[in-house]
Amino acid sequence: MNAHQNNNLIEIKNLKMYFPITKGLLRRKVGDVKAVDDISFDIKQNETLGLVGESGCGKTTTGRCILRLYQPTSGSIVFNGTDISSIPEKQVRPLRRHMGAIFQDPYGSLNPRQSARTIAGMPLIVHHMIDKKDLDDKVAELFNLVGLDSSMMDRVPHEFSGGQRQRLGIARALACNPSLIVCDEPISALDVSIQAQIINLLEKLQKSLGLTYLFIAHDLSVVQHISDRVAVMYLGRIVEIANSKELYQSPLHPYTKALLSAVPVPNPVRERERVRIVLKGEVPSPAHPPTGCHFHPRCSIASAECEEFIPPLNTISGTHQVSCLKV
């Protein structure tokens, strides 16, 4: 596919994904779960954008909207110049071969009854990109790419270790030679020693294949290592986007500051000197989000206007954007 003129592979504008809440025998709609509530961002070609936030903030839903596994309630998703947010499934299918997905659970996302050969090669068969006689050669090539031995092709998922299963999931994501891969917490279910191997593999593949990643995670230290830019999400909205180094060195949003204060520092002297920011209260329900700024009930610097006005995502300097009336 042709590169988009401004070097953005993905452009998200005012994206909303609401899930209806129904009640009674007639399934009458009584409200919405506002999983993603009016977010805008872009991802450049060959870039890794980290998307971080607490569980339930809408990170995975955002990734699934981009893959069009969900049809958004409103807003636009421009993928390589084509708005895919509302086109019918029939037109989405050919575009999907240019997207890949790596899921959180390397066991649950693989069919336990299929061989590794079938799992890795299935996207090629579905998109009619290969003759069956050439499948073994292509799967062997994919295995080699992700560090698996081609002699493992006849094994089923339970015969692989956790790290090997995730490598198999990566091989499947790469099968159709995509330009974008949505990595949905790809290392959170793995041992720490294996996490580093998978991160290094993803970085190596990005360099050699020219891939673009949306890297969804809640582990901020991993995101700092792999991402070019980081977007911080809270209760369906993006509160801050910045260059990875800038965000970690000088966060501006109170929520980002609280998140980063919880990341352990390997230096014991600095760790003792650090001030931990403990947020008050619980994360509100996305079915009943607060008015105005969603973060105001837990924010130490909130004022009356924060309860009334939704803060826009303003550019502070360069690529650093923050959604806060107090910054």
List keywords for this structure.
327 residues; alpha/beta; Rossmann fold; 2 domains; eight-stranded mixed sheet; four-stranded antiparallel sheet; 11 helices; 12 strands
Give the overall shape, derived from the CA principal axes.
globular
| CATH architecture classification of the largest domain | 3-Layer(aba) Sandwich
Largest sheet: 8 strands, mixed
Order of helices and strands: EEEHEEHEHHHEHEHEEHHHHEE
Number of strands: 12
CATH topology value of the largest domain: Rossmann fold
Domain count: the total is: 2
Q: Structural class of the secondary elements?
A: alpha/beta
Radius of gyration: 21 Å
Explain this structure to me?
- The protein has 327 residues and is an alpha/beta fold.
- It has 2 domains: 236 residues, Rossmann fold (3-Layer(aba) Sandwich); 63 residues, no CATH class.
- Helix content is 31%, strand content 25%.
- The protein is globular, with a radius of gyration of 21 Å.
Topology summary:
Layout: E1 8-23, E2 28-44, E3 48-52, H1 59-66, E4 74-79, E5 82-83, H2 89-96, E6 99-102, H3 116-126, H4 135-146, H5 162-174, E7 180-184, H6 192-209, E8 212-217, H7 220-226, E9 229-234, E10 237-243, H8 244-249, H9 254-261, H10 268-273, H11 304-308, E11 314-317, E12 320-322
Parallel strand pairs: 3-8, 3-9, 6-7, 7-8
Antiparallel strand pairs: 1-2, 1-4, 4-5, 9-10, 10-12, 11-12
